[in-house]
Amino acid sequence: MAFDNSELALVGYGNGHAIYLYREDDDARATVAAAGYVNNLDDDVNLRAGDTIQVIGAKGHYVLRVDAVAGNGDVSTEAGAGETQWVTARIDDVSTAGSVFVAAPFDGLIRRFRTVLQGAISGANAAVGLELAGTDVTGAQVTVAHSGSVAGDVDDGIATAANAVTEGQAVEIDTDGASTGTVALVCMVEFIPA
Question: CA of 4: how far to CAs of 24, 37, 109, 172, in Å?
Fold first, then answer.
């Protein structure tokens, strides 16, 4: 199916942006979220970048944020509008220097970084943190302590600078590998929309 303007309703305003409700029972989430599905050419819709669309229907309930409105009226959206999203990755061995990568789900900021140790490490602490294009994300560097470590130890940091991301941007999670013991570390990155 195609976008149906009669199913879109303005329901309010929040933080300087409009909030819309859209009922869609036929099209899949990927179809609705695709650039150009919503069309603003006749200007009946009046969508602006930053507005949110709450989509409800038989295929689920989710929130989209208007990313841009092109000159031809095509509207591009991205997931996560107004909601934080946690993206998870696993470092198979925190005691071996290396990196894993995740992709930013939308334009926004990295807010928190959290790790969960999967077993005891020894010898030395492991330094684990986030990087964007080779630059450390300020505040998103944690020390996984070896002394008294057990499975389930949680460490976290709050990003304070150098934390802006664009949708699809690679976020590096690295470990210095200073500890001893082949132990996995589950890493979680919280993203907030811009």
Answer: 9, 10, 32, 40
**Mode of pairing for the β-strands spanning 135-144 and 85-91:** unpaired
Owning domain of residue 56:
5-79
Report pTM: 0.66
Domain shared by 70 and 91, yes or no: no
How many distinct structural domains can be found in the chain? 2
125 with 67, same domain: the answer is: no
Same domain, 94 and 37: no
135 and 100 together in one domain = yes
Tell me: do 179 and 130 sit in the same domain. Answer: yes
Task: Tell me the per-residue pLDDT of 31-45, one tens digit each, with 9 for 90 and over.
Answer: 888 888 887 766 567
Per residue in 77-99, pLDDT (tens digit) is 876 555 678 999 999 999 999 99
Distance CA 131, CA 95 (A): 19
